[in-house]
Design a protein that fits this description.
Length: 489
């Protein structure tokens, strides 16, 4: 499909029927006013078109209950399939706060002690686990607790891949400051699975998804999702496909729908399956936040701009105060997926925005203000720059494709390993494909005999070979970073 036709298709809006409750003709906003369905639809449609957002799932909660759940736009541009309230999307980091709700049940049952060293739950010292060997010389790992991991105060980088040499480090004394960390949530998953002797996929299904009525949600891809799922799309409208993950990751593997996340937000606000004091504990600030932006994680730039709302972090959720009472929130951010959820607890007024587009965050500020009259979310700290204030998008580079001898391509075929990710390179006729774990494969085309590019990303792969022409590793250059990925088979 030509790019112009794709962009035009994105502007087509298809609203689905509500899957959680009967459609409301209007919803309550924080200031007591109401906004009608027609105005919501018009706002979403206009913003999607202006910001080139492929699809939007929108849920509004009043009194702790989802009263307005709709999907707009497309889940598959090529096939012109509409996004629905039950279309499965990658939850990205909404996975973290959902996982936190399950962990708090274990805290409630005294399976997990928030303030005990995580060493209590591990059958062997942490540095003896794959990926944590670099902590052997830093005894501070013994002071890390579940409370710190849930509040993002353990001192880890967001991901090990961002560390020099991919070696995990503790960057500050645990518990002393906030630094968002998916790595910390992954460590807590290891702790929980060790303490319960149960895989996280089973724990989440039995303790969260089934009791909360989240019937199209899972920590891994399920065959039943194939009837209605969304592709993610990058800033240029290029399809990245779905995320068919087969390995459960508390930091980001959850697959879900706008209807199910609406149910989660209401259940979390009500403290479902938690004692009242444990629900309260989840939303008590554990650390104040004065960083100017949430990312980069270890930036030392501070601000008092969010002091009025008392921005902080609880146990698995961000927190702030407003004239309408306390609020808790969580964002999701991955390539092709941008989400935000916030709940004002006093009256149970919440909103969830899920998009299958890397342009999605550009419409968050206006959607929050128009639909919810929410001017309190710290959009600058979140990095949610409105679409009309973004710099011009650079044009896609022109790329010349060459044909490479099939025998040369065969030398690159194999399995490569990068931390927990296995990348499989296959030959596809006159070019290659690469697949990470169970995600959708990407086609790779040659710019030179050993240099390959993706059609849907700016990644560049360079193969290093031995004397026989067999690849020994590949070098990935992406986003200004360079990673060496050794071949294992």
């Amino acid at each position: 499909m030509k790019r112009e036709m794709m962009r035009a298709s994105i502007a087509v809006v298809a609203a689905t029927s509500i899957a959680v409750a009967a459609p409301a003709t209007s919803v309550h906003r924080l200031d007591g006013t109401r906004i009608g369905a027609a105005e919501i639809d018009a706002t979403v449609t206009r913003l999607m078109r202006a910001a080139e957002v492929t699809g939007v799932g929108l849920a509004v909660l009043n009194g702790g209950q989802p009263v307005y759940v709709k999907a707009y736009g497309l889940r598959d541009v090529e096939k012109r399939l509409p996004l629905t309230a039950d279309s499965v999307m990658s939850a990205a980091s909404l996975s973290k706060s959902t996982f936190a709700c399950m962990v708090m049940q274990l805290v409630d049952e005294r399976v997990i002690d928030l303030d005990a060293s995580i060493e209590r739950y591990l059958p062997k010292p942490l540095p003896q686990y794959d990926g944590y060997e670099s902590l052997a010389a830093d005894a501070r790992y013994k002071t890390i607790t579940a409370r710190m991991l849930l509040a993002h105060t353990a001192g880890f980088a967001n991901l090990r891949a961002l560390e020099p040499g991919r070696r995990i480090q503790i960057h500050f004394d645990p518990g002393t400051r906030y630094a968002y960390s998916g790595q910390g949530i992954q460590l807590l998953q290891l702790v929980v699975e060790s303490a319960t002797k149960t895989p996280i996929e089973q724990l989440m299904r039995e303790r969260i998804f089934t009791p909360f009525g989240m019937m199209r949600t899972s920590m891994t891809w399920q065959e039943r999702f194939e009837n209605d799922f969304a592709n993610g799309y990058d800033e240029y409208g290029r399809s990245l496909g779905p995320e068919r993950r087969q390995r459960a990751d508390a930091a980001g593997s959850m697959q879900t729908t706008i209807a199910d996340i609406a149910r989660l937000l209401g259940a979390a606000s009500a403290g479902k399956r938690l004692r009242p004091q444990t629900r309260t504990l989840m939303f008590i600030p554990q650390i104040a936040i004065d960083s100017r932006r949430q990312f980069p994680t270890f930036s030392t730039e501070t601000t008092d701009a969010n002091r009025a709302i008392r921005l902080g972090y609880g146990l698995g959720w961000g927190l702030f105060q407003s004239p309408h009472g306390p609020a808790f929130f969580k964002e999701g951010h991955d390539e092709g997926w941008r989400h935000y959820a916030v709940m004002f607890s006093r009256h149970g007024d919440g909103i969830v925005i899920m998009t299958n587009s890397s342009n999605g965050e550009g419409i968050f500020k206006e959607l929050l203000q128009t639909v919810q009259h929410n001017t309190f979310t710290p959009v600058e700290w979140e990095g949610y720059t409105p679409y009309d204030r973004l710099p011009p998008r650079p044009p896609l580079p022109k790329r010349s494709i060459v044909i490479v001898d099939p025998n040369v391509l065969n030398g690159y075929v194999g399995r490569y390993r990068l931390d927990e990710a296995t990348l499989v390179v296959r030959r596809q006729g006159d070019h290659l494909s690469i697949q990470e774990n169970d995600e959708s494969p990407q086609e790779l085309f040659a710019q030179g005999e050993r240099v390959f590019i993706s059609e849907v990303a700016d990644d560049v792969f360079t193969f290093e070979v031995d004397a026989a022409g067999r690849a020994t590793k590949m070098i990935l250059r992406s986003g200004g970073r360079e990673l060496a990925i050794p071949r294992i088979e």
